[in-house]
Amino acid sequence: MASSRSLALALLFGLLSCYASVVPSLASSHGFLQCLSAAIPKPLLHTQSSPSFTSVLVSSIRNPRLFTPSTVRPLCIVTAINASHVQAAVVCGRRHDVRIRVRSGGHDYEGLSFRSERPEVFAVVDLANLRSVRVNGKAATATVESGATVGELYYAISKVSDRLAFPAGLCPTIGLGGHLSGGGFGMLLRKYGVAADHVLDATLVDANGKLMDKQAMGRDVFWALRGGGGESFGIVLSWKVKLVAIPPKLTMFRVPRSVDEGAVDMLTKWQEIAPALPEDLFIRVVVSKQVAEFQSMYLGTCDTLLPLMRGRFPELRLNRAHCREMTWIQSVPYIYLDSTATVEDILNRTTSMDTFNKATSDFVHRAIARDVWVKIFAWLVKPDAGIMIMDPYGGQIGSLPESATPFPHRAGVLYNIQYMNFWSADTDGSAQTRWLKDFYAFMAPYVSKNPREAYVNYRDLDLGRNVVVGNVTSYTAAKVWGDKYYKGNFKRLAMAKGKVDPHDYFRNEQSIPPLH
Ligand SMILES: Cc1cc2nc3c(=O)[nH]c(=O)nc-3n(C[C@H](O)[C@H](O)[C@H](O)COP(=O)(O)OP(=O)(O)OC[C@H]3O[C@@H](n4cnc5c(N)ncnc54)[C@H](O)[C@@H]3O)c2cc1C
Ligand SMILES: *[C@@H]1O[C@H](CO)[C@@H](O)[C@H](O)[C@H]1NC(C)=O
Ligand SMILES: *[C@@H]1O[C@H](CO)[C@@H](O)[C@H](O)[C@H]1NC(C)=O
Ligand SMILES: *[C@@H]1O[C@H](CO)[C@@H](O)[C@H](O)[C@H]1NC(C)=O
């Protein structure tokens, strides 16, 4: 009894002293805010007592799981409108020992851009208002600030040319800051690879508050920014990207097939067909309960698509009535928004915190056997089941070497799987997250191994969390999740981190640790 009480006391004091060493004193928080006030106009600085604080904080949060009464709020939010505000936040943060979380679109799957699971005082630098997009049609390039959404970039491109596009994600409200930092892929991935493959230059605010372009930051840091994950290397203010060619008319289709209509056989075949099709044809699958919906973008007309499908994937029984010919920009709301949405709706940045969710990912290198698909469909009809989204690889994404950018999931990948589960406020989500964990465990024999690869933009903290040792993130502990996201590129990322942020100022639960 006595010994357990003294153990509890020892633990408590241990915790308190450990807490005290990482949490800046009130005086340093005060000093930080004073430092910010001197450099940043009042309307751009939202402290916890500002009336605007909560509305600014929740403005881009989509997942209520990441914003609960017990979620630790930042000390303040800086809604930067130019580079000097971002630089000031970093300089003040370094001086007063307050760390920064940077947020662009706020779509991080674990909310690391606005919340911390650590006992630390931190500030958020929100780039939502740093969002200009300039498209140069002649050069086929765009310069885009990190706070712009992919929808805003797509729209601006379409206003300049119907022959240009950018190969990034499907959801129009994703921020470019986080998206390009983690790779970024969508319906054009087989033709053009990941979004980060198309970055020509970037402007970075480093841990000293200095502005650097590609030349100034050097080869390794510039490499690291293109897929090495957000937050770790500094704050990217803007990106210059290469646009890609697109025909003026594409053909889209969405064909749902139930198990009764042969979905098991179709999926079994799809695994080998979809990654080997011509690069102009992309067919993804969203599986929910007993229905697999095949969603496709073809860079051509229905007249050429039909014979191609008859030759390569007759099992799907595609016919002319399934074809929807449209422009690339029209395909964005067609695939992601509801059927009444217009092209202008992809500019709508308003998100709502409606469904709680949790996700994780896998990569498949060997086709999964038919009898396993039967079992998978049994998992998907369990009471608290979620969904599977599968994007086929092959084509351009697989043709670059693994070390071309930090995004390593290239040759040999048949497809990516995203598992996602949803729930509403009337449950605590434990049954749904349990289903996700159990299904992920069930899938282990059928997906990539050593490492079991995962996609950093579908961030999952259950893959591993950082440990800080002596005020620096541990490389050994980080390797557990780092190998999954980056495979053989992880060490090079850590070396780049060691160059640009040797003191590990920019860090979070899954940031790259510095190596020297
Ligand atoms: C509804 C939804 C749909 C999605 N669809 C797709 C898809 O089709 N394809 C795909 O590839 N991904 C998709 N994603 C995942 C998405 O690509 C990632 O969540 C991405 O990181 C979001 O970027 P963000 O700027 O919106 O997020 P944020 O939450 O702002 O940032 C994500 C991470 O990057 C850091 N970061 C943000 N801005 C910067 C910056 N300027 N400089 C340095 N670090 C920064 C943050 O600190 C955080 O760690 C989707 C996500 C959601 C929620
Ligand atoms: C950035 O904003 C500050 C006001 O906070 C202003 O003084 C400065 O001129 C602006 N800089 C640029 C480059 O627009
Ligand atoms: C923008 O989207 C939100 C949330 O989906 C919706 O409530 C709102 O009506 C939309 N605004 C416009 C102008 O369409
Ligand atoms: C921890 O590191 C930060 C910089 O990353 C530094 O400002 C701070 O002083 C360090 N704290 C301790 C206790 O060493």
Automatic annotation (TrEMBL):
Residues 1-20 form the signal peptide. Belongs to the oxygen-dependent FAD-linked oxidoreductase family. The lineage of its organism: Eukaryota, Viridiplantae, Streptophyta, Embryophyta, Tracheophyta. It comes from Triticum urartu. Keywords: FAD, Flavoprotein, Glycoprotein, Signal. Coiled coil: none annotated. Residues 70-246 form the FAD-binding PCMH-type domain. PROSITE patterns: FAD_PCMH (PS51387), PROKAR_LIPOPROTEIN (PS51257). One of its GO terms (molecular function) is oxidoreductase activity. This is FAD-binding PCMH-type domain-containing protein. Transmembrane segments: none annotated.
